[in-house]
Write a structure and sequence with these properties.
This protein is of the alpha+beta class and 360 residues long. Helix content is 35%, strand content 24%. It is built from eleven helices and 17 strands. Strands 1, 3, 4, 13, 14, 15 and 16 form a seven-stranded mixed beta sheet that branches. The protein has a five-stranded mixed beta sheet with strand order 7-17-12-8-9, with helices on both faces. A hairpin with a 5-residue loop joins strand 5 and strand 6. Helix 2 crosses helix 5 and helix 4 packs across helix 5.
Amino acid sequence: MAKSIYDIFESKAIASYWTDVNANMKDPMIGTKYFPVSKQTGLSLAWIKGRNNLPVALQPSAFDTKAALRDRIGVQELSTEMPFFREAMRIGEKDRQDIETLLAKGEQFAQPTILRIFDDITNLVDGALVQAERMRMSLLYSGSIAISATAENGRPIEYTYNYDADGAWAAENTIELTGDSTWTLANKSTSDPINDLLDAAEVLAEKFGVKAVEVLMNTTTFKGMIASESIAKAINPNGASSIIVTRNTAKQFIQDQTQLTITLYDKMFKDEQGVDRKFYPDGYVTLLPSYALGNTWFGTTPEEFDLMSGNANASVSIVNTGVAITTIKEPHPVNVQTIVSEIVLPSFERMSDIYVMKVF
C-alpha cells in the first residue's frame, strides 16, 4: 500500500531525518562544550543558577499562545519562567494534493518535493538550536541574556535574564581596554596582547584559584591581536620589522607564551529581523577553565507534556534532549501542521571561573 502524506510527514520521520543531517554537520555549535545539555521536568526557575548559585532574575512575558506560522528563526512567545520558543509550518491542502498526485505516480517522483519540505521543517529545529547557542555565547561575553522580537499579533515580546544582579561579576571578572592599548591596527605599535592575556589569567588564578586553559574569540578579534608589533618583536627581537608573521605562527607562539589554547568561533545566525549576526561578537575575548561552566537546561514543552502520551491526531518526537517536533493532522482545513518547540535556558554556576576582556 502506498504511503500517504500523513505517514511521510510524521514526527518520528522528521526527527530521524534531522538527526541524520545533524550528525554530518561540519561546523557544529560549540556552546555545549561549556554548557552541557540536561533535562528537567516543567518550567521551574529554581534549577537555573547564576553567579554563586543564586537564582537568575528575569522579566516575565506571555504564555498560552498559539504557535505562529513562520519561515525563519524567531522568538514567538515566551513563558513566564524559562523561555518558551515555538514556531510552526503547515503543509496546506494544495501542497498536500500536489504531493499525493506525485506519490500516485511513484514515490521516486515525489521524493524531491518531500525532501525540500523536510529541509524546511528541519530549519525550525536548527532555529531552536540557534536560540540555545546564542544564550550560551551571550553569557560568555556579557553575563546576561536579552532577546526581543515583535509578535505576529502585534504584541512586542522581550525578556532579559540577569546572571549578575549585584554587578560583582562585571567588577571582578571583566575588563575593557582603552586608549592605545586596544587590539586594533591603529594601535599595532602600542598594544600588547600577550601581556594582556597573562594579566587576565593571573587575575583568575589569584582571585578565584582558577587556571585558565583556553581563550575564546572570533577571527576578526584574532586579526587585531596578531597585528600587534609586540608579537613580531617577541618572535624575532632583531628582525621584527623585516619578517612576515603568519597567522599560524602567531597563534602557536601566543599559545606557547600564555599556555592558553586559542579557540576561534565564527559561526553565524540570522536574528528575528533577518540580520546576520555572529554568536560570539567582535572585540571580545573570554578566558576559560578546562571544565563545564553550567548546563543547558531543557524543560518540558506543552506539546511534550500534553500530546506525547497519546493523541490520535498528533505525534511528538524529541531531538537534542529537549526540542519537541510535533505533527498534527488537521481535518478542516485538511493539512498537516508541524510545530517545533523548546523551553531552554542555561545555568551558569561557574560564572566566576571565566574572565572577559573587551579589547576594542
